[in-house]
Amino acid sequence: MITLTSLGGAGTVTGSKHLLESDGRRILVDCGLFQGLKKLREQNWDPFPIKPSSIDAVVLTHAHLDHSGYLPKLVKDGFRGPILASAATRDVAEIILRDSGHIQEKDAENANRYGYSKHKTALPLYGVHDAERAVERFSSTAFRQEVRLPGGASLMLRRAGHILGAATAEVTWNGTRILFSGDLGRYGDATMVDPEPVTEADYVVVESTYGDRLHDPQDPTQTLGDVIERTTARGGTIVIPTFAVGRAQSLLYHLWQLKEAGRIGLVPIYMDSPMAINATDLLCAHLEDHRMPRDVCEAACGIATYVRDVEASKKITASPMPKVILAASGMATGGRVLHHIKAFGPDRRNTILFSGYQAAGTRGRSMVEGAREVKIHGQWVPINAEVATLPMLSAHADYEEILRWLSGIKRPPRKTFIVHGEPHASDALRVRIQDRFGWDCVIPEMMERHEL
């Protein structure tokens, strides 16, 4: 008998962790941090539901923090098995996990310095050393090649689009085929490949981030150009809170297209995120994982001035000239973008442009929903700048694209589990799958055990 238990990513769009168990062996698919609402973030500090040392292997679909960010803590607490992922995911995860470890250390240091922790001595969830130990456990896995997992299971990865290295994961165990979507990308995306079809599955575990909506069909290059033109015409600066992996690189491509078309003239473009810069360097090292040929990749990656040190970042903020600033983080939860929002948010000539999903409880979500002030570094900052979005740039499949991917499965699965979505989005996708295909669907709750 095989059981499936969601230790995260159930009833929420973050913290994905899905546990398969059979005959005392355990395989964990994804191992993400909870992000967004405080009550979710606090779960990162709860004792792990099972002994990390009892897990035989982790399968990682992609490197985003909500799928990979708990790995250093898992290793810190005793996990000693392999972490199987695509080669590009391994490279991207190394950047993301090191950065996350550094942030955890800095947060603890600041909490102790300024006394805002409820603990006498605040400790990081994990540090850079723990991240490095986690990276050492990675085993690069080729796409469309069956590999053995501990306990007699096997794994096959297929490209999912979404970001560099992202995969769907098919785990076959005791003759039962369980398919995990991970995060599905878009069809016809300008930079990333289409999600690869899968024709057979006994059980499907599918994400539902955008299970309740369709993406805007407008051309993202055109819309981005319109925002830049109207903002610079009034003497303003465009601040783009940017997901360092995936979105930053897509934006560079669209900005390059605008430059090539002569639409944005000499407006300077700055990439103010060391992690995004490092991730961008990987694009030309993994040409097989995206659509761009080498010359286009190199040209797009060369469109921006890269800013690594803090002093150079401060100079950008101080400059009154119109410009485009790409800075992490994508939901304005931390990072250098907060300094830019503090500087440019109060002036109505400027624009804060969001380019992806904004989770509940984040500053990004508040601003997109119309908040006229946000709290940054303990201060309330007025938001008089234009707040705009580029929903068509999302790296997540909308519900029609999810259904398109599912339609490749020729025989109805025994059950389809809908995860990684806010409740209304998951329920909307459940209804659509049942109406379109007549499949048996379940929205699992956290820690709910299902026999397969």
Can you describe this structure?
There is one protein chain. The chain has 452 residues and is α/β, with parallel strands linked by helices. It folds into two domains: 3-213 and 395-451, Metallo-beta-lactamase, Chain A, CATH 3.60.15; 220-393, Rossmann fold. The protein is 31% helix and 20% strand. It contains 14 helices and 22 strands. Strands 6-5-4-3-2-1-22 form a seven-stranded mixed beta sheet. A seven-stranded mixed beta sheet has the order 7-8-9-10-11-20-21, with helices on one face. A hairpin with an 8-residue loop joins β1 and β2. α4 (87-114) runs antiparallel to α5 (128-135), α4 (87-114) packs antiparallel against α8 (274-283) and α7 crosses α9 (294-301). The protein is globular. The termini are close together. The model has no long low-confidence stretch (mean pLDDT 94).
Structural class estimated from helices and strands: alpha/beta
Residue windows where pLDDT falls under 50 for at least 5 positions: none
The level 1 CATH classification of the largest domain is Alpha Beta
Name the CATH superfamily classification of the largest domain: Ribonuclease Z/Hydroxyacylglutathione hydrolase-like
Architecture (CATH level 2) name of the largest domain: 4-Layer Sandwich
Count up the domains: 2
User: Mind summarizing the main beta sheet?
Assistant: 7 strands, mixed
Radius of gyration: 21 Å
Strand arrangement within the widest β-sheet reads 6-5-4-3-2-1-22
Shape: globular
